[in-house]
Each structure stands twice: as C-alpha cells, then as structure tokens.
Hints:
The longest helix has 24 residues, at 144-167. It is built from six helices and 15 strands. Helix 1 runs parallel beside helix 6 (220-231). It folds into two domains: 5-81, Phosphorylase Kinase, domain 1, CATH 3.30.200; 84-231, ATP-grasp fold, B domain (D-amino Acid Aminotransferase, Chain A, domain 1, 2-Layer Sandwich). It is of the alpha+beta class. The structure holds thymidine-5'-phosphate. The site of thymidine-5'-phosphate has 12 residues, from strand 9, strand 12 and strand 15. Thymidine-5'-phosphate binds next to strand 9, strand 12 and strand 15.
Amino acid sequence: MSQKLLYTGKAKSLYTTENDDQLLCVFRNDTSAFDGERIEQLERKGMVNNHFNAFIMQKLQQAGVPNHFVKLESDTASIVKRLKMIPVECVVRNYAAGSICRRLGIESGLKLEPPTFEFFLKNDALHDPMINESHIMTFKWATPEDVALMKQQAFAVNKVLIELFQQAGLILVDYKLEFGRHGHGLMLGDEFTPDGCRIWDAETKKVLDKDRFRKNMGDVVEAYEEVALRLGIHLPQVSSPA
Length: 242
Ligand code: TMP
C-alpha cells in the first residue's frame, strides 16, 4: 500500500491512502501550547483524541453538520476526506476564558449571551493573530460565501454540542474549528478534541481540557478520559501491569 506522509502538524500527521479523495489522519501524543513553543508527549493522548474526535464528528454528521470524518482506522488513526484547508480558525465562545479575558478585560467564567464568534489567522510565527472579515476578503483567504458558511456551521456545531455536553454535566466553554474546501463545497475539517476547546465540570467548574497542560495543572489525559467517559465514548482499556 502506498502511504506517503503528506503533512505533519503539531499533534496530527496526514498520510495519503490508495483513495485520492481520502487521507489517513494519525493523532499523535505530542501536545503543544503557546503556538508550538512548548511541546510534550502525553501517553495515550493520541488514542483518546482519535476516539473523541470520531465520536463528536459522527454526532455532528447525524445532526446535519457535514465534516471530513469517514471512519476509525485504528486506535490512533482515522480516515478523513481530503480537504483544501482555509487558513483561518473559527472560535465560538459560550463563556469567557483565555484570550478574550486578556484582550477585553472580561472576567473569566462570564456567560456570553449571545455567544461570540471570532476569526484568527492560522500562523504560529505571528501567534495566530485575531483577524476580521475585511482581512479575509482583502487577502483572499476565503470568499464571502465561505465566511458566511463557516459562521453558520460554527453556530450549528454549538447547538448540537452545548446540549451533548450539558447532558454529561459539562460546560462547553469555547472551541476552535477549521474548515476546508471539498469539491465545490466547504466542510468542517481538522478535529474536535479537548486540545482545541475548553470544557468545565458544570458543578465544580473543574478544568477538563488543554488548559490543564497550558497551566501545568497535571492529569491532562486523565481529564480528557473523564470527559470521554461522561460522554459515553468507548475507549480501549489500559492494559494492567503484569
Ligand atoms: P483562546 O482563548 O486562546 O483565543 O482560544 C479559544 C479556544 O480556541 C480555546 O478552546 C483554544 C482554541 N484554540 C486552539 O485550539 N488553537 C488556536 O490556535 C487558537 C487561537 C485557539
């Protein structure tokens, strides 16, 4: 089988497959923060994120939000549709946390009504600066139709996932999505995992996402596994020591 490494990201690698329209997406244990300035290996993270992403993407497909997920290939890899990615990140926030607190002096934990939507340029060297629709038009990163669709789909995702997390006693604080072109259309790509969103326990507000890594809180993958368990995601058992 001809498998060629096509792209290496900070936490995932993409390989060609025999099908020109599909890629193999391998979720690695690499965990990065501060635009790749800090990278560590966290055991089991690739496996947990692969299963987490598969579960969420399938829930979204069932709810009518098209995305690139095709099928699980192994514990750490999935087959996805090949997209031509748009170099912008779409962030939806239901509660204030992270950069919006720093930028606008907003208190962490404030409920945002209505939820906010922001674009960031995907560029680690520039530290993913915030951009607006005018920049996207001028620099031709996407068309006005793409922008409208990304916004609409990002909020459609919110509708599905707020409820899904709520049923598990969890708050979906915020999340980052990336979209790509497929044929003449546009669809959600990249991933939806605790690496790219914020999740808090609804009662205790315990942080259960990558902020545990960013802030050196420990038990990073354990927190991801707790969320997976509460959402009903089936993860392979840890093999017990001999
Ligand atoms: P922020 O508070 O740092 O702007 O991030 C908002 C959310 O988007 C948070 O859940 C982390 C996620 N995110 C990424 O995963 N990668 C990125 O490059 C950015 C800018 C945000």
